[in-house]
């Protein structure tokens, strides 16, 4: 198959591209590099022994999409391209709706024009919002609490309507939990710009000496140790979920909606301890007040993915931390 991967130079996209190449697929990466680096493509080639086609461009560029779909015999699209900062989305909502929602509409329109109807969409567990029950199943009510989550839910709804309008569509909506870790080679990993928004890269930067200490937002939740509990999933497991979704769509039309998580919650302090074991470094930390909007617990029911896609997460928290530390220690300045 020839797969177009939008946002394929990003964190999850790059790990998925490696696995697609390893599986023998031809891969085109379309990325505007607003949150990634072109050198990622060199690293992918180093790992896979094969270079994906790389096009620097925006998924909202209709003429560019038309050119790509005319030039290459693309059979399916994996759509990662999107903005994802929860902090930024509240101050730049129009940017998020334009990029995430309008971009997805342009992509779907041009796919249909080119008679390409297989799409794997990078969604998020943020579509669920505050838990009515735990663990989150795919049937949990959908009530996102921020603009980022709203934008993901809007795209999900658009794609559901699209599939209802034309039976040719084969669409997977993959709701991610908390991606962490890095490729075992240490060549690619998470490289956030500025101050990391997520716990694992912040931990890694403290361990490597880039940050003085880790702030833990609240230790008075009703959890195992008072700190927030999340479902962390290794990025390689997440990537393999996309290949499993492609295989499923090859045999099934319509829409499938699937959680990609481990089904197991890990607290902040448990993750810190695991990272200390992996790195051999003591992580300086301080307890600060809770952040508005943070939930005490947040984890998946992952049985449906195993039943429908034949997929389940394989890597435990120790492996996630070991791979994150290898990436960070070998690349203290990321891809720079």
Description of the molecule:
It is a single chain. This protein is of the alpha/beta class. The protein has a domain of 217 residues: 3-Layer(aba) Sandwich (Rossmann fold). Helices cover 40% and strands 18% of the residues. It contains eleven helices and 14 strands. Helix 2 links the parallel strand 2 and strand 3. It starts with a strand and ends in a 6-residue tail after the last helix.
Keywords for this structure?
three-stranded mixed sheet, 18% strand, seven-stranded parallel sheet, 336 residues
Low-confidence stretches: none
Distance between the first and last residues' Cα = 32 Å
The number of distinct helices, counting runs of at least 4 residues, comes to 11
Give the C-alpha Rg: 19 Å
User: Approximately what portion of the residues adopt beta-strand conformation?
Assistant: 15-25%
Offer a concise description of the structure.
This protein has 336 residues and is α/β, with parallel strands linked by helices.
Helices and strands in order, then pairings?
Elements: E1 2-6, H1 11-22, E2 26-31, H2 39-48, E3 53-56, H3 62-71, E4 76-79, H4 86-89, H5 93-113, E5 118-124, H6 147-165, E6 170-176, E7 178-180, H7 199-207, E8 214-217, E9 229-230, E10 232-234, H8 235-251, E11 254-260, E12 266-267, H9 268-279, E13 285-288, E14 297-298, H10 303-309, H11 317-330
Helix pairs in contact: 1-2, 1-8, 3-5, 5-6, 7-9, 7-11, 9-11
């Amino acid at each position: 198959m020839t797969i177009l991967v939008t946002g394929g130079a990003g964190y999850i996209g790059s790990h998925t591209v490696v696995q697609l190449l390893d599986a023998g697929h031809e891969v085109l990466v379309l990325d505007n590099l607003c949150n990634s680096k072109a050198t990622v493509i060199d690293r992918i080639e180093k790992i896979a022994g094969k270079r994906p086609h790389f096009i620097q461009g925006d998924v909202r560029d209709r003429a560019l999409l038309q050119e790509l779909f005319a030039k290459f015999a693309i059979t399916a699209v994996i759509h990662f391209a999107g903005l994802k900062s929860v902090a930024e989305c509240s101050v730049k909502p129009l940017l998020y709706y334009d990029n995430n929602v309008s971009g997805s509409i342009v992509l779907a329109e041009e796919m249909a024009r080119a008679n390409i109807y297989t799409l794997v969409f990078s969604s998020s567990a943020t579509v669920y919002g505050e838990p009515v029950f735990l663990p989150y199943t795919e049937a949990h009510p959908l009530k996102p609490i921020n603009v980022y989550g709203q934008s993901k839910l809007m795209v999900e709804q658009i794609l559901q309507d699209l599939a209802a309008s034309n039976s040719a569509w084969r669409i997977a909506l993959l709701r991610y939990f908390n991606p962490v870790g890095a490729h075992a080679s240490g060549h690619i990993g998470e490289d956030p710009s500025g101050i990391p928004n997520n716990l694992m890269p912040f931990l890694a930067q403290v361990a490597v000496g880039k940050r003085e200490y880790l702030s833990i937002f609240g230790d008075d939740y009703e959890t195992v140790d008072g700190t927030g509990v999340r479902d962390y999933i290794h990025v390689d497991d997440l990537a393999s979920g996309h290949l499993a979704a492609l295989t499923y769509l090859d045999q099934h039309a319509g829409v499938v909606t699937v959680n990609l998580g481990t089904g197991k919650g890990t607290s902040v302090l448990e993750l810190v301890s695991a990272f200390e074991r992996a790195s051999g470094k003591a992580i300086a930390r301080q307890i600060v007040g809770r952040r508005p909007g943070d939930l005490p617990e947040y984890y998946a029911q992952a049985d449906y993915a195993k039943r429908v896609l034949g997929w389940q997460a394989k890597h435990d928290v120790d492996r996630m931390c070991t791979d994150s530390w290898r990436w960070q220690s070998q690349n203290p300045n990321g891809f720079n």
